[in-house]
């Protein structure tokens, strides 16, 4: 028959073996959880990298759109200025001929009035001797 000491030693050995197995299972579960978290971190990093690439692409497209808008605005301003210039220059071709051919006469020569001394007022006289 086994002695009480051997029974106690056997029970202690079984208990230690159970504790060891339980600790190993906990370690295995922790390793699996760590691997899962690492995979999630890699996936998140890849998603963040793609989002950053998308953001850069959108920034470039926005800059191109801004440049296109600025160019369009300048084109509108240029077209408006050109149209205004055409309207102004068309006045030269419509108003000026009307002024010239108003009575088909040249303006009359205006004579300068004479002063009481007989000199023409408004003319330049050489006073250097």
Give an overview of the whole structure.
The protein contains one helix and no strands. The chain has 129 residues and is mainly α. The longest helix is centred in the middle third of the chain and has 97 residues. It is rod-shaped and about 160 Å long. It starts with a helix and ends in a 29-residue tail after the last helix. The relative contact order is 0.03. The mean pLDDT is 81.
What number is the mean pLDDT?
Answer: 81
Q: Please trace the helix and strand order, writing H or E for each element.
A: H
Radius of gyration from CA coordinates: 53 Å
Using the alpha-carbon principal axes, give the shape: rod-shaped
* Biggest sheet character: none
State the helix count: 1
Tell me the strand percentage band.
under 5%
- Class derived from helix and strand content: mainly alpha
Give the uncertain stretches in residue-range form: none
Considering DSSP H and I runs of 4 or more, what fraction of the residues is helical? Answer: over 70%
How far the N terminus sits from the C terminus, by CA atoms, comes to 164 Å
| Annotation, overall tally of beta strands | 0
Biased composition (Low complexity): 9-37
Region (Disordered): 1-37
What is shown here, in short?
Residues 1-37 are annotated as: Disordered. Residues 9-37 have a biased composition (Low complexity). The protein has 129 residues and is mainly alpha-helical.
Topology:
Layout: H1 4-100
Give short descriptive properties of this protein.
single chain, 129 residues, mainly alpha, 75% helix
């Amino acid at each position: 028959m086994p002695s009480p000491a051997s029974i106690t030693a056997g029970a202690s050995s079984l208990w230690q073996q159970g504790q060891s197995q339980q600790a190993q299972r906990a370690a295995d579960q922790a390793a699996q959880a760590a691997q899962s978290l690492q995979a999630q971190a890699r996936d998140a990093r890849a998603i963040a990298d793609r989002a950053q690439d998308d953001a850069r692409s959108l920034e470039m497209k926005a800059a191109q759109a801004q440049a296109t808008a600025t160019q369009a605005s300048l084109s509108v301003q240029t077209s408006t200025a050109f149209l205004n210039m055409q309207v102004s220059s068309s006045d030269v071709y419509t108003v000026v001929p009307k002024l010239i051919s108003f009575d088909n006469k040249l303006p009359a020569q205006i004579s300068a009035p004479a002063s009481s001394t007989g000199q023409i007022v408004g003319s330049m006289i050489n006073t250097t001797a």
